[in-house]
Write a structure and sequence with these properties.
269 residues; alpha/beta; Alpha/beta knot; homodimer; two-stranded antiparallel sheet; seven-stranded parallel beta sheet; Helicase, Ruva Protein, domain 3
Chain lengths: 269, 269
């Protein structure tokens, strides 16, 4: 993973998941630049990175191309974000809220105003996002295309999202209110993902996933519930303690009254 | 001038003034089709018409390509319209009102409702519209691009205009989306409360609530997370299975392959 200069805080990240063609990375960068976005992240670009065709197709959006960050997996690409949309044009059997670009832009502006970075994941040119990819997102973002002809390429979808982000910055009601919603806001995605992995590991250990072919659906359903709860960091810690306790796994060493150290049935805090 | 079937009345016409590349005509047609527009007019396309590259670039928007009308001059292309926007990204010394795509879309919707067809003129790829071209328009339409990087191609500009037209026709963005948020809604509170009790009982059994005076706060925190997730009935069932599995409690009787009935480590479904 390379680490170029950080983009301005608050802007949504645009995450392209396994883009196949460098040219499409470039046209997406150009679309972003037009509406002032700069945080472009790539998960496993098929043609590798850096890519000359991407730069050429960016038509001068070199500041976006130069700041691209590349990640080996989607979960690493979103680790620092606190609210994530997955774009899809097909309805999925996943119980996630669905937003259009205008509602999503308003939500991401509010999130940014509260200091919580957000992002939008775009899928592969041919096949889009898998259900597993989508299971890492809080909500689904879809575009109001004609149901008889929905055929946007990735740069066009990025363009609409970036456009709505820019327009949404013009009047931010939340910033004008005398006080805000309580709360720390959602945990960094990395912590949520560790919780996913802990729960899935614990369930694996008790042979919960049977028959095995049902596993992906059950995993998606559990992740989806956890996403919906918009867990704070503290809540993620509490839940991890809950899972560890139910697993009857030692949590952390503690001293008993008689002075011995134990990790048995540790209290979590 | 060819005369194909008339597009639906009321839709704005998209007029490309002397487009240089057939490919750009095609990508503009594709952008239109995504948001339900069909009235594409060309003024003196440099590569002539019909154009194979246009059709290829339209990615299936054949109904738009087939309905294209070609005119020898801009004034003929707009002759039947009653309100016309000219797009430009540079300020001109022309005393015309300037609108953004959202305001323009609202205006064109109102115009359509009054039976007055409108249209939007887009300029040449390299040089845009001349002041003379613009003199035929009622108002100027410009896009809210970043002043430091305004570089939309013609299909991208058409995309934004078509997108705003589509949204402007629907009071509620959600109604324009190809699919909605899932509609099961939250589970009856009784089921949620049973889940609370199951979790709290399971944690009691592993002495999770220590010191006891912390119990109320931890219980409230866990309930709060579960409330925030707005769990459906199915999700409550899944979670109850998860908790039962982690408790290593028998869930429900099932038949083994040898025919015996067991409740050991039952599969949850």
């Amino acid at each position: 993973m390379n680490e170029p200069a950080q983009p301005p805080p608050g802007q949504p990240a645009i995450i392209l998941c396994e883009p196949q063609l460098g040219e499409n990375v470039g046209t997406a960068a150009r679309a972003m630049a037009n509406f002032g976005l700069r945080d472009l992240r790539l998960v496993n670009p098929r043609e590798g990175w850096p890519n000359d065709r991407a730069r050429a197709a960016a038509s001068g959006a070199d500041h976006v191309i130069d700041a691209v960050r590349v990640y080996p997996s989607l979960k690493e690409a979103i680790a620092d974000l606190r609210f994530v949309y997955a774009t899809t044009r097909r309805e999925r059997e996943i119980g996630k809220p669905v937003a259009g670009p205008r509602e999503a832009a308003a939500q991401m502006r509010a999130s940014a105003a509260a200091g919580r970075p957000s992002g939008v994941i775009f899928g592969r040119e041919r096949t889009g996002l898998t259900n597993d990819d989508i299971s890492y997102a809080d909500e689904i973002l879809t575009l109001p295309v004609d149901p008889d002809f929905g055929s946007l390429n990735v740069a066009q979808a990025v363009l609409i999202v970036a456009y709505e982000w820019r327009i949404a910055g013009i009047a931010d009601e939340a910033a004008a209110l005398p006080f805000r919603s309580p709360g720390d806001g959602p945990a960094p995605r990395a912590e949520l993902i560790r919780l996913f992995e802990q729960i899935e590991g614990a369930l694996e250990a008790v042979n919960f996933f049977r028959p095995p072919e049902k596993r992906p659906h059950v995993v998606e359903s559990i992740r989806s519930m956890l996403q919906k709860a918009a867990l704070t960091e503290q809540e993620v810690r509490t839940l991890r303690g809950v899972v560890a306790a139910l697993e009857r796994r030692p949590t952390r060493p503690r001293k008993l009254r008689d002075g011995t150290i134990t990790t048995e049935r540790g209290k979590f805090d």
